[in-house]
Each structure stands twice: as C-alpha cells, then as structure tokens.
Amino acid sequence: MFLYFLSAAVRAGTCLLFATLGEIISEKVGHTNLGVEGMMQMGAVIGFIAGFISGNPYVALLCAALAGMAGALIYALLTVTFKANQIVTGLTLSIFGTGFATFFGKNYIGKKIPDAITTFFAPFEFPGLSKIPWIGEVFFNQSGYVYFSYVLVIVVFIYLYKTKWGLHTRMIGENPAAADASGISVDRYKYFNIALSGALSGLGGAFLSLVYISILPVNVVGGRGWIAVALVIFAMWNPLLAMVGAYFFGALDIAGYWLQQYNLPVSIYLFDALPYLATVFVLLFTSMRKTANSKEPAWLGRNYFKEDR
Amino acid sequence: MYHIIKRDEPSPRQKLIIRILFVLAALAVSSIFVVFADANPLQLYIGIIDGCFGSLYRFAATIEKMVPLMILSFGVMVAFKMRFWNIGAEGQFLMGAAGAAAVVRFFPNLPLPAMLLFTALAAFAAGAIWLLIPAFFKAQFGTNETLFTLMLNYIALAFVTALQYDFWKDPAANGMPKIANFPENAQLPASHGFNLSILFAILIIVAMYYFMNRSKIGFEITVLGESENTARYIGINVKKTILTAAVISGGLCGLVGMIQATGVSGTLTTEITGGLGFTAIIVAWLSGLKVPYIVINSFAFGVLLQGASYIQTAFQIPGSVAEMIQGTILFFILASEFLIQYRVVSDRHKEEVA
C-alpha cells in the first residue's frame, strides 16, 4: 500500500521534474523565468492536440517541446535582447500561456487521448531493474515517459557539470562580463539555454495531458509551474537533488487525496498548501544558514548589458 | 557590427508615440488570435469600446474593474519602489477578503457604516500581516521575498478553499460549496452601478501621491530602493522601513479584498481575485512605479477587462482570447521600453559621433 503511494508520488512528481530541470538550466544562465506555468500550459495543450490529431506519441512530444520552447523564446527575446525585467516578463508569459492554452484547448476539453498513445505510455516493468525489491516497484514499474525523465536528469547533470557548454553556461550565470571577456557569446548561450528550459517545461506539461490524466480538463497544469520554480531552490540548483525534491513534492501533491480515507480532524483542502509550505521552510532554512545561499548563481535575475561593462 | 547605446531621455511626446505604435502593433498581432476565434477583429475592437463606454452602466462596470486593479498596483508599487519584489498581491487580496468575511461572519448585525469600517480595517490588517511575514524574514535574514510571497499566494488560496468548502460552507446552499452571501448591511452602497469604492479610490490616489512624493517614509522607501548603503549612511532604519512599507503594500492589497467581497462578489470565494494580483504587478511596473501613470494604465486595463467580459457575452468569444490579447499587448509594451531607453547604432555611425 505504502509502496503504491510512493509509486504514485513518482508519477505526480514527474511533471515537476521536467519543469524543474528546465528552470535549473535557465537560472544557471542567470535568468529567473516565472513563465514556467505558462510554458507548461502551452506544452500540455499543444501536446494533447498534436497527439489527438496525429495519434503518434512522438509527434505529440515534439509539438509539446516546441510549444514550450516558443513561449521561452518570447521570454528570451524580451529579457536577453530587449533587457526587460525578468520577473515581469515571466509573469506575463504565465498569463499569456494560460490564456493560450485555454483558448486553443477549448474544443478538446473532455476529449480522450487516442488509444495508440495511451498504450505507448502505459506503465511496464523495466527488464531486470523491476525485480529489485521495493525500488523496483516504486521506480521501475512506470510509464516510458517516467524512464525518459530519469535519463534526462543524468543528461542535464552531465551537460551542466561535465561539458564545455555547461561550464560556459554556469560561468555566464556567475559573471557574464568575465564570460564575455573570455570570448563566450553570452546572448547565444542565453537563448540556447532558455529555449532548452522551455522545451523541458513543455514536456512536463505534456506529461500531465498525455499520461497523468486521460481526459483533458480545463487548466490541466493548475499551478504546478509555480511549484517547479520553488523546487529549484529546494534542490539548490542541482539536477540530482531536483529528482528527490520532485518526488517529495509529488508526494505532498497527492497526500491530501490519499489521506481523505482516514477521516482526519483537519480539512483536506489545507493539504493543498503543503508543497508551498515546504518551500517556505526551505527558503527560511537556506537564508538562515548563509552557506546554502551561495549555491545561487551570482548574477541570477540581473540582465547583462554589454556596454555597461 | 551594431551596438546598443543608452539614449538621452526621450521627450514625453516621443515616448507616447513609441508606446502608441507598439500597442497598435500588438493589436495587429492579436487580430490573428481573434481570426482563429472566427471573429472579425475590427468588429471585436469596436465591441470592446462599446462594452466599456456604450452606456452609463457599462462605464460603471469599467470603473468597477479599474478600481481594484489600481489599488493593487499602488500596493505593489510601494514594495517595488524599495526593490522588495512583492509578487504576493494575489494572496494579500485573498487574505484581505477573508478578513472582511470574518467580520461579517462574527458580527453580522453591525450597522452599515461600522460594518464597512471594520471590514476595511480587518482586510487591511489581514493583507498587511500576510506581507509582514516575508518582510520580517527579509529584514532579519535576507530571505528571498520573491518566492516567499509567491508561495504565500497558494497558501492563502488553500486556506480560503478550506473556508469555502469546509469551515464556512453555507449549510443552506444545498451542498453547493459556497460561503453565504453577505447581508444587506455588509454590501457597499451603490447608485447607477457606481459603488462606494470610487470614493475609496479617489482618497487613495491623493494619499498615495502625497505619500510617495512628500512624506518622510515615502522618501526613505525611495532611497532604500536606490541604494541600501546610502540609506544606512544617511541614518535610515532599514528594517523599520522595510516593515512599514510592507504594512502599507500588503494592507492596500488586502483592502481590495474587502472592496471586492462587499462591493462586487457579495461574499468570499476562491475566484474573487481573478488573477488581478498578477496583472497589478505588470501595471505597476509598466507605469514606472509612478502614481499618475498607474491611474492611467489601470484605466486602460479596466477597459480591456470590461471589454473582454462584454465581448464574451455579445460575440460568444471565449474570455481566454482577452487574456491572450492582454499578454500580447504586455509583451509589446515590455519590448517598447527597450526602444525608449536604448537605440541601435552601427559602428560607422559611432565613429562619426566620436
């Protein structure tokens, strides 16, 4: 029973994991993007529509990633090229993306995903690993989409910490002027990383509409994008910790629903606040222990203007 | 090669022309979405104007949409002015509405003037407390207020949801999860569709203008926003200033909760904010954190909001199209700020100047 809950927590956390990995990449290059919610909405609805029309899971994934990326590119154009305030631009993207998703999704509300896609993403026992006691049941009896996220965690980690591009990316987030002086094309890296983060958010949204839920509801993302922004701090900008955080928050997300049966003396609606409360505690904890704060990219949230150098 | 340089402050006339051109461009792009919705863009834009100014009642509805947005923007402005990123206006709004609802619930028989006074005070206090929490930790430990205030939005939402679906659920509503409507003595008086909130609004405009430009604390907030070191150097008590500004900022956002609950929705609901708390952040920022521009821009957004709700019923166009138009206009205005502050020159031109 408890293992079943954990397995559900992994599923609930997967959409957060995609979006969090994306936001980590964006913040590593120095850009706080509060548009995650909007990009997830765009990815969720466009992914669903593409999957519904084509019946092909790969087309659905591609379109979802492109939709998220399109949102991210608007953000990149405004904040990188036009030096607009990151917080305001991100919030605008969230408003726009939510409107976009409601508008284009309105004819698909209540529709069911084609069977071809449902079967494609159906959970299966991962050969070999699913036999490991406990761990196998929780992590290796999942949809292929979830396995894909495990791979991505490793890929993002290698990209950020073991490649030249990752090094340059992190350098820009810490000190763009120094990166610029050493010949790194700051704007090009920013565009690339922000676009990548948008694609990941789009895929996170599409996990909800293609796998997690079988019938498209109104507002499928429902605020999870904001949790992803918070998770970045929880994970201290580390892709591996993001995995732990995502499943923990996934567990909190479904806790209210699971505890319903026990007739607790508290209102189950208050449980919806748990992921956000947890983030608040992390914020307090990290700020009181100054050391943890140093994990934040030094130039986060500030635009880089070459001529100010 | 091309370079981007900071330009001299353009004249107000130039600024206005750039902004109008960008809004027109945004409307042109928005027309694509409108065509997707199987409507004629021109007809739609005329519909928006008609929906806002077509009759006295429609104009009243426009003002009704403008007032909360404007007060929220003032609240956000006070915090932003000292570089305190309060993006929790949504949450302060909700808690303010909950505070007002608590007064109505526990003292239902107060006469109207006392009721309005106490609901307003309770709403102000609830909003202020909701921002004092992150402000205290910011002042004490430097805790990141952007995310803290963002999280408090959703904590407030969960709290109000619990009130609506559990604690304060109206037993007389046949199982519908809603809080009972406020009694007659807890409704903002209105005439011809204009409710008393306009009076609040005018008082607040005057007070904010005085506060930001003439008062000591307004000056201290501005200095603190420019440079914390300067503020310390000239003897400003930084912690006290942060907390005072938080009370005003959160309090104003909370007060909007009272105005909406007693004047528009007639009760407390989870949908009471309608996302205005986020729109207000954008309005405040685009207005350059200046009182007069906030008044103008709030009116412009009031037109967009009222126009959107009118076309929704008049043309059967989904309201989400308005959200997209709103987003598109905002994107274009954000881009226009760049052209107002900078200009692009080629290398050749630069040498000539040199």
Describe the protein in words.
The complex is a heterodimer of chains A (309) and B (354). Chain A is mainly α and 309 residues long. Chain A has a single domain (2-302), classed as ABC transporter involved in vitamin B12 uptake, BtuC, CATH 1.10.3470. Chain A has 14 helices and 2 strands; from the N terminus they run αααααβαβαααααααα. The longest helix of chain A is centred in the first third of the chain and has 27 residues, at 2-28. The termini of chain A are far apart. With 354 residues, chain B is mainly α. Helices cover 74% and strands 4% of the residues of chain B. Chain B has helices at residues 12-36, 41-53, 56-81, 89-106, 112-141, 145-167, 197-213, 216-226, 228-233, 238-265, 276-286, 291-314, 320-341, 347-353; strands at 2-6, 190-191, 194-195, 342-346. In chain B, the strands form 2 sheets. In chain B, strands 1-4 form a two-stranded antiparallel ribbon. A two-stranded antiparallel ribbon of chain B has the order 2-3. The longest helix of chain B has 30 residues, at 112-141. Chain B is globular. Chains A and B meet through helix 3, helix 4, helix 11 and helix 13 of A and strand 1, helix 6, helix 11 and helix 13 of B.
H/E element sequence of chain B:
EHHHHHHEEHHHHHHHEH
Secondary-structure class of chain A: mainly alpha
Radius of gyration of chain A: 19 Å
Can you write the helix and strand succession of chain A as a string?
HHHHHEHEHHHHHHHH
